[in-house]
Design goal:
Blueprint lengths: L9 H15 L1 H13 L3 H5 L6 E2 L2 E5 L6 E5 L2 H13 L25 H15 L7 H14 L2 H8 L4 H8 L3 H10 L3
Antiparallel strand pairs: 1-2, 2-3
Helix pairs in contact: 1-2, 1-5, 2-4, 2-6, 6-7
GO biological process, one term: DNA recombination
GO molecular function: DNA binding
Keywords: DNA integration, DNA recombination
């Protein structure tokens, strides 16, 4: 499996959202748009229940680390969540699977990671990027770093414990560091 990338161009971020909606529907585009704004691992993103959302905050115990993530929702995330909630008031999960809805005895389930991963990979091929479910998290980290140059903030947002891991994760290469030294003259 190829390592997925952060999407470094903001126009491409928007294009991916558009292509996901056009090809796979609004729900998968919503996964992308909300995922970009929450920087969660895909398993945590798909496991969000409406009960985890209190006003403008998401409270969630992360599956991988068992740490409590408390994330203030920005305007875009709140708008998407509010729309989904109004369109699907009976849903338990933010990204609930529509499969087996006719069966009353089947408990609700979120979208599968596999389905989301395949959709992202197909759109990634279309735009020429190794795109996957981690791309949302990596993209948010990359753009936060580029806007602030504060690796500590990115580490805290991604809940990483090492600068080296965070830099590698968001795709900051030695070439990027070299360019920063050349471009910033004091």
């Amino acid at each position: 499996m190829a390592e997925v990338q952060a999407v470094k161009n903001l126009d491409t971020v928007k294009l991916i959202s558009y292509l996901l909606k056009r090809t796979y529907g609004q729900q998968i585009a919503d996964v992308w748009d909300v995922g970009l704004n929450l920087a969660l691992r895909i398993s945590d993103l798909l496991s969000i229940k409406f009960e985890n959302i209190e006003h403008d905050r998401l409270l969630l115990v992360e599956g991988k680390t068992s740490k409590l993530a408390t994330i203030k929702l920005n305007e875009k995330a709140r708008a998407v969540i509010a729309r989904i909630r109004s369109e699907r008031p009976d849903h338990i999960y933010l990204f609930q699977s529509y499969r087996n809805q006719r069966s009353k005895n089947t408990p609700a389930k979120p979208l599968s990671r596999r389905y989301v991963s395949r959709a992202f990979a197909a759109i990634g091929e279309e735009v020429g990027i190794d795109l996957g479910t981690h791309s949302m998290r990596k993209t948010r980290g990359y753009h936060l770093y580029k806007n602030t140059n504060d690796i500590a903030r990115v580490m805290k947002m991604l809940r990483h414990s090492s600068e080296a891991v965070t830099l590698r994760y968001i795709g900051i290469t030695q070439e990027d560091v070299d360019r920063d030294f050349v471009e910033l003259e004091l």
